[in-house]
């Protein structure tokens, strides 16, 4: 009996161990199948295609959103705000191109003028400055034209003509400033008119409905947002133009002082 019980226990343990082994093998097969599924999905490329489609549709959605908001804000005010943006950008681009073309390498120009003075005198220096563009070269030309009247007249001529050139550099900036101020004002005007329309709708309905109030306020605020966006964009261009003008004016002043010193030295050397 003892031997039978022991043999029955050994066979039961062996059967349980075999069952656990088969269960573990089945579990490993399921895990391997689940791991192979994402790989197959990646190979087919379906998720990547979906992401590409979403990215392609994003710009289209943004364009339609901007279009819808523009229409909701009211064409009578949003259109004027857009016109301010277009005109302001046109003036800003023209000023940026003009100011960049007016930039001159003053050290190189002074060296060429000095070489011309030593080689051919004032007339040769005039030819050098006349063939150069920019306000600094124009000031040099005006100063050299007054050289025969004395150094004092050269200084006065440089100062007077420098003011003229500075006015030319600042030309158009007042229009950019106008559009910067005008765009938010038009936006605020649209906001006030939109609020008046909202209150008229409330009065006509005879009750304060959240739908009526929200719709009127939404239209009113869209014009304000449009005006502020235009003002921010044009303000960046305006500040760049002002900083460029200040840089050119400082360059003109430094170059004028150097030219006067150069002419004084040339006059003493000539004597």
Kindly list the characteristics that best describe this protein.
8 helices; rod-shaped; 271 residues; mainly alpha
Can you characterise this structure?
It contains 8 helices and no strands. Helix 2 (46-73) crosses helix 8 (210-270). It is rod-shaped. The protein has 271 residues and is mostly helical. The termini are far apart. Residues 1-49 have low confidence and may be disordered. It has one domain (77-270).
Structural class by helix and strand composition: mainly alpha
Number of helices: 8
Percent of residues in beta strands?
A: under 5%
Overall geometric form: rod-shaped
Which ranges are low-confidence, i.e. pLDDT below 50, for 5 or more consecutive residues? 1-49
Chain-averaged pLDDT? 75
Rounded to the nearest angstrom, the radius of gyration is 40 Å
What's the number of extended β-strand segments? 0
Helix residue percentage: over 70%
Tell me the span between the first and last alpha carbons. Answer: 143 Å
Order of helices and strands: HHHHHHHH
How many structural domains are formed by the residues? 1
The largest β sheet comes out as: none
Short characterization:
With 271 residues, this protein is mainly alpha-helical.
Topology:
Elements: H1 2-44, H2 46-73, H3 75-102, H4 106-130, H5 135-145, H6 151-169, H7 173-205, H8 210-270
